[in-house]
Amino acid sequence: MAGELNGPRLAPRSRGGARQLVIFLHGYGADGNDLIELGRAWQNLLPDAAFVSPHAPEPCGPAPRGRQWFSLTFRDKNERWVGVNKSAPVLERFIAEELKRNNLAGTALALVGFSQGAMMALHVGLRRAERPAAIVGYSGMFVLPDGAGPDAVSRDVKVRPPVLLVHGGRDDLIPAQALLSSAQYLAALEIPTEWHLSAGLGHGIDQEGLRHGGEFLAKRFGAKAP
Fold first, then answer.
1. What pTM was estimated for this model as a whole?
2. Of 23, 33, 43, 133, which has the fewest beta carbons less than 10 angstroms from its beta carbon?
3. 105 lies in which domain range?
């Protein structure tokens, strides 16, 4: 595994230091700059939040300027499961460091991931010692061992934060069925889950999905709308 993570940050808009921390986890072949703009869009909704969007730990072969949380060959049905487990420790260390940097408890954390980053957010967020305030997954999935159901990870799930899943109805990279399956798996683990399907959208985030994500976080953080 590559070295420690780092990436672009946004300080809270309000004075007096951060009261919440939102960590963005980008998709395969992108980097931290790809999602930090979500933080700018949400600053009015979350004026007390610090935002950080780390670059994933590995270079991405098919996208030399991009990064990856784990490699994808699509030849091994278990490569997502192996990948999220491999990258989890470095992400966990980063989360701990960022919480310490901002003098915050783990309950003040929200994880927001896109695609491969959504897989990481769900995998790591549900295994933390302290329950995060929220997890938002865009265009991703809840990763399980190949052929296994949610019972296979029931002992690994330590906390049950509220989860929002958002997906494009015409996503040709990770089909929208992944949202429905993931929502069912999370519900079977008694994890409170909401979801939104953006009709006509491919593998991306539209304004409606952006609004849903921001409002979901504001509600979970108890922030007041501007």
1. 0.95
2. 33
3. 9-221
